[in-house]
Design brief:
Elements: H1 11-14, H2 17-20, H3 43-53, H4 59-70, H5 74-86, H6 94-106, H7 110-122, H8 131-142, H9 147-159, H10 167-179, H11 183-195, H12 203-215, H13 219-231, H14 235-247, H15 251-263, H16 271-283, H17 287-295
Helix pairs in contact: 4-5, 5-6, 6-7, 7-8, 8-9, 9-10, 10-11, 11-12, 11-13, 12-13, 13-14, 14-15, 15-16, 16-17
Keywords: Membrane, Transmembrane, Transmembrane helix
Transmembrane segments: 21-43
Protein name: Sel1 repeat family protein
């Protein structure tokens, strides 16, 4: 399962540069770089989400960061990197974000090291995609306990990107990240237990870890949990979690919810609802959903503007 990079709320940053320079905060987050639940969004989408959900920044406070950066203070370097990444208080500029993050990252700042890993992972900010470089920066941040970097090390080892594929190493990093509460990693650990990858297959542990991710609103976790409950023929639970994931836009969950409506599993039998969800999934390229629509002569629904 290939993913693209995102940034995550970083607790050290909360008590560091943003707090120090007086940024007003919303909720418990600082900059939220949440791509949702493994939907495959890239750096731009993560930054857009951060702009909507994260921190209110004005140009005066960006000036404080510049002053601090001019004195070589890591908090200022880190703050500028994040502001340019999000386009808060300054025009969004991934290249400048890279330059400031590189300065802070070389000083050992884990948030900036993670940003650098993300930019190399996606090939943004004026650098070519380089999984080895991404691995290098993620490793530095992960060694400092950065849960998001630990997760992406797991991805690199799981996919064999920039490193030799190694399921045991992937599971190690996923587990560290999952134990720190990172939802994508919790889902990944659940999938490893479900598939028996690097560990003995264990449905109970799979349900436990997928459930932790699902409870955090992770769409992948909700889908996998629903799918596993379906295999156990616990249809009401299966429909509950799959439908939550489907509403968040997970195409596989949308296909599954359509099938459950078609068969009356965990919900009322409803052909119209089944077609509705298949059309949404097919619009995202889900071949199984498109095949079902074709069988019912409904494939033209995917051209409806409603499903764009």
């Amino acid at each position: 399962m290939k993913r693209r990079c995102k940034l995550l709320n970083d607790g050290d940053f909360y008590t560091g540069s943003m707090w120090r320079y007086g940024f007003p905060l919303w909720g418990c987050g600082v900059f939220l770089f949440l791509l949702g639940t493994g939907a495959g969004l890239g750096v731009e989408a993560a930054a857009d989400h951060a702009s909507d959900e994260g921190v209110l920044v004005d140009t005066a406070r960006v000036g404080l960061f510049r002053d601090a950066a001019g004195r070589g203070e890591v908090a200022g370097l880190e703050g500028l990197a994040l502001c340019y990444f999000c386009g808060k208080g300054v025009p969004q500029d991934f290249h400048k974000a890279f330059l400031w993050a590189e300065k802070a990252g070389k000083k050992g700042n884990s948030t900036s090291q993670f940003i650098l890993g993300c930019l190399y992972y996606d090939g943004k900010g004026g650098v070519k995609q380089d999984f080895r470089k991404a691995h290098e920066w993620f490793s530095l941040a992960a060694g400092q306990g950065n849960a998001a970097s630990q997760f992406y090390l797991g991805v690199l080892y799981s996919e064999g990107q920039g490193v030799r594929r190694d399921d045991r190493e992937a599971f190690k990093w996923y587990s560290l990240s999952a134990s720190a509460g990172y939802a994508d990693a919790q889902d990944a650990v659940g999938c490893f237990y479900d598939q028996g990858r690097a560990v003995k297959r264990d449905e109970r542990k799979a349900l436990e870890w997928m459930g932790r991710a699902a409870q955090q609103g992770n769409a992948d976790g909700q889908f996998h949990l629903g799918k596993l409950y379906g295999r156990q023929e616990k249809w009401k639970e299966a429909y509950h979690w799959a439908s939550l994931s489907a509403k968040k836009g997970n195409a596989e969950a949308q296909y599954l919810v359509g099938m459950m409506h078609m068969g009356g599993l965990g919900t009322e039998m409803d052909t119209k609802e089944a077609v509705f969800w298949w059309a949404r999934a097919a619009k995202q390229g889900n071949q199984d959903a498109l095949d079902m629509l074709r069988k019912m002569g409904k494939e033209d629904l995917t051209k409806d503007p409603f499903f764009r």
